[in-house]
Amino acid sequence: RRSVEFSINVDFSQPNCPATSTAINSLPCPSPPPPAPSLSLLRACTTMKEFKRIHFLMIRTGLARFAVHQRRLLSFCCASGCGDLAYARLLLDVIPTPDPFLWNCLIRAHSDHRAPRAAVAAYVAMLASGLAPNAHTFPFLLKGFTRDDDVVQCGYELHAHAVKFGLAANSHVRNALLRMYAVGGKVDSARELFDSCSERDVVLWNAMISGYNRNTLFEESCRLFVSMARESIRPNGITYISVLSACAKMRNLDCGKQIHQCVLTSSHLPELRLQNALIEMYQQCSDMEAAWRVFVEMPTRDVISWTALVVGFAKSGEVDRARELFDQMPERDLVSWTAMINGYVAANKFKVALEVFRAMQVAMVRPDAFTMVTVLTACAQLGALEVGEWIRTYMDRNQIKMDIAVGNALIDMYSKCGCVKNAVEVFDRMTCKDRFTWTTIISGLALNGHGEDAIYLFYKMVETDVRPDGVTYIGALTACAHAGLVDKGRQLFSSMITRHGIMPNVTHYGCLVDLLSRFGQLEEALETINNMPMKPNSAVWGALLAACRVHGNLEIAELAGKHLLRMDLPDSAAYLLLSNIYAKSNKFDEAHEMREAIRAKGIRKEPGCSSVEMNGEIHEFVAGDRSHPRSSEIYSKLEEMSKELNAAGYVADTSEIFVSMVEKEKANAINEHSERLAIAFGLISSEPGATIRVVKNLRICVDCHNAMKFLSEIYKREIVVRDRKRFHRFINGLCSCNDYW
Ligand SMILES: *[C@@H]1O[C@H](CO)[C@@H](O)[C@H](O)[C@H]1NC(C)=O
Ligand SMILES: [Zn+2]
Predict the structure, then answer these.
(1) Taking the domain 505-605, which CATH number applies?
(2) Least confident of 82-86, 247-251, 427-431
């Protein structure tokens, strides 16, 4: 036996191995073993405790000396689940002449446990015992290697060992070394090894291609695939799967289609994994029709094939088609459920998204953090505070890790549900904060009218090394607008360029114009618009026009209106605003003209819709809605509300009645605005004194805003209304927005 003349430099602490050698099994016995009842015992054994008894028995009967028994004993200890690797090592130490098989067994077991250092320690011990590695040793040893630098360093030394032991040309060893380099991120070393091999089989090519994939060098993968054909190496299924995955990652449809052609001529089809790779490639490249064609031709499909289609259709906006497939799936996993929920969120169908999430619970599929982020997004949009809170508790209880994305989603949910306090609490508790965390809390505070706090946090953020971006600035400028901080807003706007080098786009200019005009600086706002480096959009003119109504400036209103009407917008908001302004200035002909224009052009007003959450369920109302199961109760409550309002001295705003007539709503339509239905429902279905939270898809109208103030006083309720722009918190007859919105 040759002695080993070199050792490994890297210090992997060896498991200590007290010698428990007994005299009985120290002598090797070359003759065949006697009949062995203990072997069948060992086969039935399931715990180390039982195992130790059997081992003892074998030592006593002398069976433990035989190689066949030693193999069985060691295999048991190395088995995953019930095994014990420290004990395995003890076994090895008391065997006077263990063969490499036994050591390989232990090395492989360490690798399978993702403990590369322990595997190397076993390898070193093997060398120390005077044994040389064989062709199996290196593959077993290397397969547990990770990206860890020390481990990779050790990999280079092991490569040298393989050469010295004359094993480097063995194809298994070669593949293992190549894979080890690729996993360790040393893709150049992998390529060097690849190029140095004189005879390369398809397995080695595959290892190199997947090595490139692993290191996100997808173009290299494709290039290698092409040279493979040049060297007349026939790709196999795994080759195709790897290159297709590279095409998918690059979103390179052309390349993917070419590979598909190669696959078709290669007689590798039908094969489930390969077809799944094709579907995935087409899905990633957004060619869902091609993905569908592959799918329908599959003789068998698994959950991956179905899910890829669901993901693809959901992503491309065909959520109904995704749902159809989702309902047909024989089984659904976490990914398919999450894709479906995500699809509904992307399609703004938040209520359905929550329904699917509920069904997922019933199906007992455990959501992960990513699912939670998606569901929280839906809650935020719906103002579904109860569901959002439930999710937070659920995550606590099920120990789903709250990463930054989940934290950000929670902050967003709380602020969009009007619970700034909780949003701030989550924010404070987050130890890791990224740009989105700061931006979310700043925008959340702004939305809720806590402009000063938002600005305070903005400056705190600037002090940290997290840099604000354009979105953060939108939040900060909105904060100024909602808090009336005109000077601060101007200052922020210029610091955006000078301090952070962010060029304001038309949205930022819109914020500035909104801020200035809202606080009566209409001339300055107009000047800002005229000096904008880009074409003002409808939001910019719209902000100015809306402010003109509040400040009663007909001249600028007409100017803004002219620009807006020229833009041919699909909704009637500008016409209505102008019509209102004309009516207020007693220019009834012009007001009439505007209403005629709406009728003539067939422009519609986006229907108002309000929702309220009750016991975790979202109830939606549109104006004049009678579809709710408790409709008759709601309408009698409305009547009562109307009487109470009149008694309290509330007078309906006539300008809004104009609007109602334009919309050809019923005469009492104003009483049936969606937000009032939502409030009526809230009043009859919640405890006295409970806060009523309403989410409205449009801006709240002047008249309803007024009515809400009265209602909060009459019914002694806090009423929180989130409209398209911001929050209104009505308490004791006052609104948190101070009537600026
Ligand atoms: C302006 O920039 C912000 C982010 O910097 C972005 O969210 C917004 O969509 C942009 N506006 C337009 C009209 O592109
Ligand atoms: Zn308000």
Answers:
(1) 1.25.40.10
(2) 82-86
